[in-house]
Amino acid sequence: MKKALIIIVHLFCLVVFLSFTADAQSNCTYTVNPNSFVVPVSGGDYSLDITTQAGCPWTVTPFQSTRPPSISFTSPTSGTGSAKVDFTIAPNTTPSIREGGIAVRLPDFSNVASVEIVQDVQCADPMFSPSVVNVPAEGSTELSFGWSPSSVNCSYITVRSNDSWITLTGTAPESRYTFSVAPNTGPARTGTISIIINTRVNTYQKIGTLTVNQAAGQSNCTYTFNATGGGFPGGGGSGTFDVITQPGCTWTAMPVESWIKITSGSSGTGSGTVSYSVGLNFSPNERYGSIKVNDQTFGISQNRHCNISATPSSVSVSSAGGMGTLIIAASSSSCGYTSSSDVPWITTSYTGTGIMNISYTVQPNTGAARTGTITASVSPAEYVKITVSQAAGQSNCTYTLNPNSTLVTGGSGTAGFNVTTQSGCAWTANTFNSDWITITSGSSGVGNGTVNFSYTINTLNERRFGSIKVADQTFTLAQDRFCNLANMNSFAGASSNGGLVTVSHLINCTFTVTTDSSWITIPRPLDGPSFGVSFRVNPNPGPARTGTVTVKILNSTSPEETKTITVTQAGSCINSLSSIGINIGGSGGNNFGVSVSAPVNCSWEATTESSWIQITRSAGSGNGEITFTVAPNTVQARTGTIIINGQTFTVNQTTAECTYSLSPTSIQAGAAGGDTGFNITTETGCNWTAASNVNWITVSNTTGNGSGRVNYSVQPNSGQARTGTITAGNQIFTVNQDAVAAPVELIRASGRVVDANFKSVRGAIVSFTNIATGETRTTTTNQFGYFHFANIERGQPYSIAISHKRYKFTTRTVIYNTGALIPIYNPDPEP
After folding, report:
1. Chain centroid to CA 366: how far?
2. pLDDT tens-digit profile of 222-256?
3. What's the CA gap between 788 and 779, in Å, rounded?
4. What order of strands is seen across the sheet that includes strand 532-537?
5. Are 569 and 641 in contact (CB under 8 A)?
């Protein structure tokens, strides 16, 4: 067996210094410092010193391996004599640790020194199942939980109980850990188990906590109720009472008698509520029962059941009053009951048991309608009520109609009025000498009400009148004669030469015709029936123009019997436009136009009041073209106009389509927070807003136009990992912030296995076992003979075992402390 040598270095910092010496040329020696780097997942900028004699040449190149880090040099990669080499390591975006290095070589490509580089991998939050465990007071010896790492490189874990009554007992298949909880003889308590997950390189750490809740020991529990008991009528019912005890104390509620049922709250932990129901008591006597809650008793009493009913359940009596009989029945002939009235104008007689008749007397009513109640009862909780309604005395009724008259137009239609009177006062509604009026609803009623009616067309040449009688009141309806303006044209056109214009005729109407324009004249007054509506339009020497003519029926009672006729007259100069409008997209554009057709020497001019329309050619004579530009539209769709010698050309523009994109779309922020930003890209002229959905993210610039940058700040995190978003445009930017890592007293051990000639031993299996917990972790030395272990607990004994197919080593026990250097172990001698 060959001899080998183990060197294990234990440091808080993440850099292990080793020295390499080799012969480059006969007079050149080379040394690099440092000769190894441990790099976090985020990468960074680094440098190393090459020490050699003046004039000694060297070249640096990345050392390739299966998963090398991405190295780029920021200083020259070759030179002579001593020098500093600067380089950058890119972030690790893979799920695996990267291992590689930098080789220092001579011009003949022989290595004279090398630098090892190990780059960490990022771990996601572990997924625990379950995250909370509830344990009864008697404890348990068979409890477990599981976890799921995000990567095989994130499976370096430490599990620790934080409470003496929680004991870790080992592991189970499928990444599950087992633990036991001791019995609890005191109040309810809560403990935790810490789970610390590190990468093998130990620059990135995730910490989780399993919560263990244990109920209180029953010997410390006392139980009381918020009420001493409950009483119920014979018909039964439901009730509740509160159980008051300490947190974690368990209890069970059980009814002693079968006629008592628990409806909810049959058991509980800590204070709670018990709901129960009580059935009918068909026995002839009162009965008693109880509900047991652990060692306490809640009492319940119930009267015998006497169900009672009445026929009829309500009666109506005229204003004259009178006598009547009610049939009362009880569930048992032994149930005694009484009757009473709540008003003096109703009297009752009879008191007895079983089925009986109650006689009542209602006195005459000379006033308003009234209501009273007769009560038959067998106990304060079991009774029946009969409502007695009596009509009002008619001698006390007064009636009011609102309105008491209405004027309507000559066409057919509907209308109505309200009747107001005292409660109980009766009335009827009838038409009076008016066969053209029909009552459609409310022909009779008691108390307040409404009468609705319809009426036909008045074909007479004069106004007519009708009426409706309600009690001693009269409603009057007046109707004008019928004049129909519905078929009259509302628009008339005239040529530039003018002339007489006639619209449709009126039937059986007297009307007037007026105008608001001096160029329109009314030839003669129009004041008789069956005349056509005519007016004269003067010749137009200029651009097109518009006026109005108003026709009004004399003695009209409705706005519909006045009609306005719009008169348009063509201009004498411009004949026509090539189109009456244009539809333009939201992006706008240049060189839009409309052709003008006009006689020779006919001048024209175009104007607009729309600020987003710019006329580039606005005037001319004869045939020509109006040209204009339209600005981009960043708001809602809009419409503008161009007026050309009185003619209107319409411009319709749609909304611009704004699209938004963010770069990047998310960020992983450290627990310390900080200021940064992201880019937003959109079309020119497109507005956007930016807003955060959480108070720990503050957006600096909340509005913008076109492409730009959104700046924001993230506050330091003092708790668990959290996520927030920023909405910019219609896109979402996600901010994931790390939790604050709890302080853990862990250190890192790195080392190298070499043989007796100080040459690297590759592929040696190194196992670290925590003697206190039994946790064992294993790794393999790389091509340089190096190995690393993260999360070594300070002050804890560990056993170190190394195996190799060519060498033999003895297992040793060591205790690690801050800054301690593990002694060098010699391999076993050859047999």
Report:
1. 65
2. 889 998 888 887 778 899 999 998 877 888 999 99
3. 8
4. 499-505, 532-537, 520-521
5. no
